[in-house]
Amino acid sequence: MEKSGFFNSTGGDRVYDAADFASYFGKLVSNGIFYAAATNLQVTAGSGMSVVILAGSAWINGYAYENTDMLELTLATADGIHPRIDRVAVRWSAVNREIRLAVLTGLAVATPVAPALTRNDDVYELGIADIVVPQGAVSVTAGNITDTRLNASLCGTVNSLVTAVYE
Question: Which sign, positive or negative, has the C-alpha torsion 90, 30, 93, 7?
Answer without folding.
Answer: positive
